[in-house]
Design brief:
Strand content: 5-15%
Number of helices: 9
CATH topology of the largest domain: Rossmann fold
Shape: elongated
CATH class of the largest domain: Alpha Beta
CATH superfamily of the largest domain: HUPs
Largest sheet: 4 strands, parallel
Length: 248
Amino acid sequence: MYYLNKAAWLVLNPLAQVFALIVLALVFRRRARLWGGLALVWLLVWSSPLVTRPLAWGLETPYAAQRFQKAETYPEADAIVLLGGGVGFDADQWLFPHLSDSAARNWQAARLFAAGKAPCVVPTGTGAAEADAPFLRALGVPDAALLLENDARNTEENVKLTLQLLRRKFPGKPRVKILLVTSAWHMRRAEKLCARYAPELDVVPAACDFASRKGAPFKATEWYPSVDAFNRNAALWKEYLGLVRYCL
């Protein structure tokens, strides 16, 4: 299933679609202007920061109240589950973990731990031991409180493998309460996957890393296409595709 999902994304991601339209323009010379024009329009649409707002709002609205929620106000739980993706590590390239925009997830998990909301933090995802764990230690989470899941390659595997880990951590406990930490735009799909593959978990969302800007006026720069906007819009589009798949 993992490789099937990867193959589907190769077809459905906006960059591949732009590339396909360019190929059509090169192959069908008589319609080159049509295909080339469509490629340009499609590229401009996905590169527009104006598109980011509605895409992000549709995903993040259920968690809008958490935008300014302090860690102290969250309920206590058995574990803080941190879905990886915010910190990278490559021993051949960097001495220390490399932070992306989604590193806000790690900050959120560390804040919740510091507030005493759970006795352990579970970073989940490939590279958790090399990337997330060192950063969490630097943020004040001790080794004794880290429960690492280091094999998951996507969100579905995050949920399945974390459930196995929590079952071993809390044997005989019929229900385990977790604070689920991930980006706000990723939270809806993460919750649906928990409901499907880990129904014995009581999930409390602790969203962060909002892509939308609440009540902010439009800025002049939002009218210009950018690489950052393209990457963000593609990530948001992938979330919608994931929601469609898991709602079927």
